[in-house]
Amino acid sequence: MKSRRDFLMAGAAASAFSVARVWAAKTNGTPFPYEEFESRIARRDFRDITKDVLPTPSMIVDLDLFQRNVKQMAAQARSAGIHVRPHVKVHKSVDVARRQIAQGAIGLTCATIAEAELFSGAGIKNVLWTKQPASVNNIQRAVALSKKDPTFMFVVDDLQVVDWVEQAAIARSARLRIAVSVYAGMDRQGIENGQPALELAQKVAGSKHAQFEGFMAYSGNAAHTKTFEARRKRSSDDLAGVRETVSLARKSGLPVNIVSGGSTGTYNMDHEHGLTELEAGSYVFMDTAYFTIGGKDDEKVYNDFKGALTVLTTVDSKRHPGIVTTDYGNKAITRPTDQVKGMPWLQVGTQGAEYGALRWSDADKDVKLGDRVEIYCTNLDMSTNAFDRYYVAQGDQIVDVWPIMGRSGPSQR
């Protein structure tokens, strides 16, 4: 007769055999040589690199969905007669940017001078920096980049800044391309529309070292307005003053080459409201902030672009009912509005800097120790800033790795 200890030992052996069999199946019969992981990545040897052997938390790009999203935006823009100048703050990746350019994007939009330097340095032309240079550091860098890359452009919303950049351009014998940032419903920047905007545009046009390019008008509050018709009205209302300004500028004899703005949420309506180019960015990956704004054909779900980016995490502790601990914590920008891919019954939470949580209440559901779970993040700008690379996947197989660049530190601002 077998003792309880015999039964426990036999069970443990069976469990170990089961784990070994699963591990062998995932790694073609032999454990993945983790000592070679980074050297394999460096030489782009992705043999046997599947999601199972990645460190976590990691960012995963579904290549097929990503490519679909980029092509969808390009096709819509062509049909609407509007250009795409996508914002890179979402992805911070030269690899992503080059694929956007290959699909017809006319340039890029950047939030920091460091991003502009990075993408221009990678050979990408027509980079637009959407903040005016107001510090000595930013003025000098904007002028230096303008001299190095004549296709670079930045914005101003103040007469004083025009004087500052003009003085710096004289000292460097540089020629500047400048657009005027005008108010479009967001209080963070943009000169008043109408006569104030016209006077600023005329000052830029009258500068001996600057060329006036047009206007930038970012109506960011419209981007996440729920339901298509409400969003269309908000976009139209926010851009009404911009249309007036453009009309005044043209009547005064100023050429308006661009009217830049827009977003992923308003990409298929902004051409109706006076924009000539879109600064949309989130469409390449999508996040949960966009999932519920509603589309043209569905007031609750936004399906125009698919969720192509997830954060891969591991269940690394399971000691209490209805909750497990993961390694997707505060440092990886976990938020309760994140969503678990394929498992909507799970709620995402946080337990500390390196500790995340998954909770559920359904008695017939369960999550196992060691499970890999993919999570859609809430804010792409913040989440991508916490990682240094994208693992690009087709199914479970990793087929590429794209560095995430220009993320933090004084030199990256």
What do these coordinates show?
The chain is globular and about 70 Å long. The chain is built from 13 helices and 17 strands. Helix content is 34%, strand content 20%. The protein starts with a helix and ends in a 10-residue tail after the last strand. Strands 1, 10, 11, 12, 13, 14, 15, 16 and 17 form a 9-stranded mixed beta sheet that branches. The N terminus is likely disordered. It has 2 domains: 135 residues, Lyase, Ornithine Decarboxylase, Chain A, domain 1 (Beta Barrel); 228 residues, Alpha-Beta Barrel (TIM Barrel), CATH 3.20.20.10. The protein is of the alpha/beta class and 413 residues long. β6, α8 and β7 form a beta-alpha-beta unit.
Structure characteristics:
single chain, 413 residues, alpha/beta, Lyase, Ornithine Decarboxylase, Chain A, domain 1, 8-stranded parallel beta sheet, 13 helices, globular, disordered N terminus
Q: What ranges have pLDDT less than 50 throughout 5 or more consecutive residues?
A: 1-5, 7-28
Helical proportion, percent range: 25-40%
Structural class: alpha/beta
Cα end-to-end separation? 72 Å
Query: Averaging pLDDT over every residue, what do you get?
Result: 92
CATH superfamily of the largest domain: Alanine racemase
